[in-house]
Amino acid sequence: MPEINIRPAIATDIETLAALEHSYSSDHVWQMNFRSEGHTVEITFREARLPRSVQVQYPNNPQRLFSDWPLLDGLLVAELDSQPVGYISLTMNSLLGAVRITDLAVARQLRRQKIGSSLVLAGQDWAMYHEMQRLLLEVQPKNYPAIQMAKKLGFELCGYNDHYFANHDIALFFSKWMK
């Protein structure tokens, strides 16, 4: 793993962060099955291997960082050799005692080197510092790499929302309770 530093974002980071390649490739998907009989509704998710890897567009517009970053409760940056190479955006919900991770991106050439995991763990520390008890992560069902990372970090599936993202994709929600 490269030696990275994680710190709060500053205004001069935003252009670099928005320019990161946010799309990803996946060879698995979490398929949703919906079944309704009488008064019973059953929804299940199952992991399915795709016939070939697909390139998936990021569901949020990275350019919105320019207007949204001052409104976020937290925006942490991973830097390597003093250059931003990834970020995590954090939004608090004090009523629920939860922090939502709405964006997580790492420079394509540095993926699968635990930088994303380091950002999530830094987000967890940030949430605990702000006395929040739960961390929520929202991902597309095609984002198999993020789902696998979430599971390795102790997150569990806690729900979904159909047509959640701007591209009308489903959002899967994973949560982790913190001590």
Architecture blueprint of SSEs:
Elements: E1 5-8, H1 14-19, E2 24-37, E3 40-56, H2 65-68, E4 74-80, E5 83-93, E6 98-106, H3 115-129, E7 134-139, H4 144-152, E8 156-161, E9 171-177
Parallel strand pairs: 6-7
Antiparallel strand pairs: 1-4, 2-3, 4-5, 5-6, 7-9, 8-9
Q: How would you sum up this structure in a few lines?
A:
The protein is of the alpha+beta class. 19% of the residues lie in helices and 45% in strands.
Q: How would you describe this protein?
A:
The protein has one domain: Aminopeptidase (3-Layer(aba) Sandwich). The mean pLDDT is 93. The protein is an alpha+beta fold and 179 residues long. It is built from four helices and nine strands, in the order E-H-E-E-H-E-E-E-H-E-H-E-E. The protein has helices spanning 14-19, 65-68, 115-129, 144-152, and strands at residues 5-8, 24-37, 40-56, 74-80, 83-93, 98-106, 134-139, 156-161, 171-177.
Name the descriptors:
4 helices, 9 strands, 179 residues, seven-stranded mixed β-sheet, Aminopeptidase, globular, alpha+beta, 19% helix
Order of helices and strands: EHEEHEEEHEHEE
CATH topology term: Aminopeptidase
Helix/strand structural class: alpha+beta
- Tell me, briefly, the overall form: globular
Which regions are unreliable across 5 or more consecutive residues at pLDDT < 50? none
Number of helices: 4
Under CATH at level 1, the class stands as Alpha Beta
Distance between the termini: 27 Å
Which range best describes the helical content: under 10%, 10-25%, 25-40%, 40-55%, 55-70% or over 70%? 10-25%
Strand content: over 45%
Mean pLDDT: 93
State Rg: 17 Å
Classified in CATH, the superfamily is Gcn5-related N-acetyltransferase (GNAT)
Strand order of the largest sheet: 1-4-5-6-7-9-8
Please give the CATH architecture.
3-Layer(aba) Sandwich
Major beta sheet summary? 7 strands, mixed
Total discrete domains: 1
Per DSSP E runs of 2 or more residues, the count of β-strands stands at 9
